[in-house]
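We store sequence, tokenised fold; for instance:
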Amino acid sequence: MTSMAKRVLTTVVTLPTLFIIIFFLPYNSYLALAILAILVSIYDAKEMKDLFFAAEGQKLNIPCVLVGILPFSQWLETAYFPQFPLVDLAIVLMALTFFTLELIYGEKDDFAKSLLRISADSLILLYPGILITFIMKLTTTIYPTQSMLLFFLLVFGNDVFAFIFGMSFGRNNKGIVKVSPNKSIAGFVGGTATAILLSVLFCMFVPGIKEIVLPWQAALIGFLTATGANIGDLIESAFKRSAKVKDSGNIIPGRGGLLDSMDSMLASAPIFWLLLSFLN
């Protein structure tokens, strides 16, 4: 099976799974989505730790399961305690926890690499930890089902069509971004244009969203979401180049690791949520 076929197959499997969760399992403030986010964040944290070890030869002390507290806190805040900033509290407590762990484990090298390890722990707290909470925040928008469907449609649409356009028209315009030399102008333009088109069509015809988002606003959402997704894809390429690996893992056929599929979502979710919140 070709790389393109694997990529399309993964998308065909993943999107319906997300749609089923969003459409048919919205119960208890999208508990099913929260459980998925918790599991994904934990595994993403593991892949980030593996990348850091491959790049720097340093083992991090932060337990991967700790990162799952952030999407859980977001769900708990949304479902039961909207008056309390549970996510903010979780971030502070988690930071203090792995700072404390460094005081214990840092003795092994006389704290020579403490700043490096704490910086890496903080990065994992942000990526995937904090960023994945913005996907959960989409459940708080005025039309959560439509908002989440639009978000996933834009991210996957940008990704698939960037790949298709890049393969079809990008042979002579690659190398514009050094961190990912196989990316092409045709891929970026094709993926972004597709996201804009999908966003405009979705916001023109889907009830709920079409009442609050004008066509020009939909085009802006598509453009900025695709831009955020591209940035997420490129920054993860930087992580992998630093670690001298092709993929963050091998859990997903045709895509590599879980981070290889989540990078675009993690970076674009805050942008998408901010735009929708402003419009609402």
